[in-house]
Specification:
The chain is an alpha/beta fold. The protein contains eleven helices and five strands, in the order ββαβαβααααβααααα.
């Protein structure tokens, strides 16, 4: 049974989102706080701020989050910008040492919106010369990707790595939460923040939309056009290696949802996202 095609947002300029100058969105304390039932960590501190390019980027787990953080570290001038996450050592790259880059805000050198004084954060959120951007992903495919990546391949508990897809769904139905498979609309309150966006990209057209965003910022030639891939000669999200970025979920999604009952169970879990994406 073929998987339904969900509508995915295409890159949109502010006029298409009916953004008004002086929208007067107000950032309040706790806006980007995680659900208390989620794992507690310092990894989520809200959108990333790149002052040089007047960008506020609402990063989302399992939507090329690691690569975008590498990109922003490159834009900020860090020589080790290409370093990949590998914690604990060997979990992601067996032959490489411990690395908490680029995710850990304590060491990645990136600026987060919640680290700014509240008045400054609200000023740039309402400044029409700043770009507010987000990338979203088909929630059904993202859920499969989270299972393949964070459960089957990289979960620290060997017993969890043995879970079948149906067993994983059951655990999520019973309350197992994680930012990688929870709905994207629970990571940010999209009712509040989506209307603020000047740019909405789609994971399904990641390379093209990222190029569009970087060209809009005037950063494509310097940071996006080359320096990526195993040979350092590819554009961001292009080349053979980047075809694997989805973790195989795009190619396998029809197999995982061939059973109508399984598909309906995941659709119920992803219902908050299906209202937006």
């Amino acid at each position: 049974m073929a998987t339904e095609t969900h509508t995915v947002p295409q890159p949109q300029e502010s006029s298409q989102l009916e953004k008004k100058v002086g929208l007067n969105v107000i950032l309040e304390p706790g806006d980007f706080a995680l659900d208390s039932a989620l794992e507690q960590s310092d990894k989520h501190k809200g959108p990333i701020v790149i002052r040089r390019f007047r960008l506020i980027f609402f990063h989302v787990p399992k939507v090329a989050c690691e690569e975008f953080k590498k990109l922003f570290r490159r834009m900020e001038g860090y020589e080790d910008w290409a370093t990949s996450y590998n914690d604990p050592p060997g979990l992601y790259s067996p032959d490489k040492p411990l690395s908490r880059l680029p995710h850990d805000p304590k060491i990645n050198g990136l600026t987060y919106l919640t680290q700014l004084p509240l008045d400054e954060a609200n000023m740039i959120l309402n400044d029409p010369t700043w770009t507010k951007a987000i990338f979203l992903r088909d929630p059904m495919t993202r859920f499969v990707s989270a299972y393949l990546d964070k459960i089957r391949r990289h979960h620290r508990n060997a017993e969890m790595r043995k879970l079948s897809f149906e067993e994983f769904i059951t655990k999520v139905e019973q309350g197992l939460k994680n930012r990688h498979w929870n709905p994207q609309s629970q990571f940010y309150n999209l009712d509040k923040w989506l209307p603020v966006m000047d740019f909405v990209g789609a994971f399904e057209s990641l390379a093209e939309d990222t190029e569009t965003l970087l060209r809009k910022l005037g950063a494509w030639e310097e940071f996006g056009a080359d320096g990526w891939g195993e040979d350092g000669a590819s554009a961001i999200f292009r080349g053979e290696k980047n075809k694997l970025h989805s973790g195989g979920a795009d190619e396998k999604v029809n197999i995982f949802y061939s059973n109508a009952t399984t598909k309906n169970r995941v659709m119920a879990l992803m219902a908050p996202d299906l209202n937006y994406i």
